User: Which sequence fits this backbone?
């Protein structure tokens, strides 16, 4: 019997993609096997994170890395590292940031719900720029000089949310920040694939980059990566690891945590609440290896084949057209004609509350589109979705 049936929790077919609310995706058998093996033994967590750091560094080109409890946890730890650096007294004080550099500069058009993670450290966000282009009134957004102007001795970091629409370009942000000796923290949670983005932001000069492990990386739902400068990763690790130990008994791998740089051990840090377990760390590392081994082209063909199968199985639908679009992540778009008795929102609800429950992507419902994302779909679920679509629309 499936564990969710045993628990009495309804399963869903996830055609929305790896969103947290619908539990991300599912794990490859290699990942679950590694997690089971990891769960059966004990290790020193600093040793495990130091090993993870090497793998993350090799995959990203960064000096060091940390496996975190999601990208949002990575943002919290990155902000905490930028404020406290290697000072145990500062680590001990967070989220009380009085008298510390506690401002995080951010382009106003990049503000989003996840920046709560950096504010949780006690930092204040200092917004810059006016996103004129989004109002339909103009073409401009924040300029590099506006970021430069907002940087003061109070600045801990610049937070940059990567994405196709992000402005100014990251290298320009890095330039003005580094001229003023301020680190740049990049939220790249959803920027995979392409796999080249594992390296792109570090290559552009970012000091810290956070990725989600539970999205296209297909790692455990509650996993992520923070990679970047060795000293900042060391600070982030110190503020997350459990430090309930005497100084003399503590011997983390020096390449990961260099004790000689510390006057003593801080207490548990602000990132202790974003603790990650050994199974999750191991699962993320194996998922990262699989992601790199499969490669973008094979992955794209696998995703596209699922959608072509769905398109074919759905067949002719009344008042609806199907098309596969998307160069990086393909999606099956179902476009409802205005004559359709069901509009996009009604179709989404009918799918969600039907049997089986199918959750599709409703982000373009305003344009009469229902999207089917292949990332969290299995071959066996395709006929079930096609059958429901025919019931509702054929
Ligand atoms: C998904 C997402 C996050 C959060 O990632 P988790 O791994 O779920 O913590 C943060 N920022 C952006 C832009 C995201 O899309």
Assistant:
């Amino acid at each position: 019997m499936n564990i969710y049936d045993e628990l009495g929790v309804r399963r869903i077919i996830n055609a929305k993609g790896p969103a947290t609310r619908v539990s991300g995706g599912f794990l490859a058998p290699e990942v679950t096997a590694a997690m089971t093996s990891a769960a059966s033994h004990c290790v020193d967590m600093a040793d495990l994170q130091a090993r993870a750091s090497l793998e993350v560094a090799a995959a990203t080109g960064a000096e060091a890395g940390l496996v975190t409890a999601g990208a949002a946890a990575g943002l919290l730890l990155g902000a905490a590292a930028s404020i406290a650096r290697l000072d145990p007294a500062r680590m001990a004080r967070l989220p009380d940031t009085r008298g510390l550099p506690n401002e995080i500069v951010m382009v106003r058009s990049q503000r989003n719900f996840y920046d709560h993670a950096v504010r949780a450290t006690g930092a204040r966000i200092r917004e810059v720029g006016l996103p004129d282009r989004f109002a339909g009134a103009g073409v401009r957004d924040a300029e590099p000089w506006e970021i430069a102007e907002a940087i003061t001795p109070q600045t801990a970091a610049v937070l940059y949310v990567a994405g196709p629409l992000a402005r100014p370009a990251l290298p320009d942000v890095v330039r003005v920040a580094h001229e003023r000796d301020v680190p740049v923290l990049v939220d790249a949670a959803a920027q995979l694939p392409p796999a080249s983005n594992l390296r792109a932001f570090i290559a552009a000069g970012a000091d810290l980059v956070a990725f989600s492990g539970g999205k296209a990386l297909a790692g455990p739902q509650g996993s992520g990566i923070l990679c970047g400068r060795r000293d900042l990763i060391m600070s982030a690790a110190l503020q997350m690891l459990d430090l309930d130990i005497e100084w003399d008994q503590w011997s983390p791998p020096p390449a990961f945590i260099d004790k000689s740089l510390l006057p003593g051990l801080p207490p548990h840090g602000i990132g202790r609440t974003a603790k990650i377990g050994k199974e999750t760390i191991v699962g993320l590392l194996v998922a990262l290896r699989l992601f790199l081994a499969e490669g973008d082209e094979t992955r794209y063909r696998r995703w596209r084949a699922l959608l072509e199968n769905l398109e074919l199985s759905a067949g002719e639908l009344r008042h609806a057209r199907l098309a596969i679009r998307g160069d990086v992540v393909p999606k099956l778009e179902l476009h409802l004609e205005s004559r359709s008795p069901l509009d996009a929102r009604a179709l989404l609800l009918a799918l969600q509350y039907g049997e089986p429950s199918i959750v599709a992507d409703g982000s373009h419902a305003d344009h009469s589109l229902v999207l089917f994302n292949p990332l969290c779909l299995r071959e066996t679920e395709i006929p079930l979705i096609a059958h429901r679509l025919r019931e509702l629309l054929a």
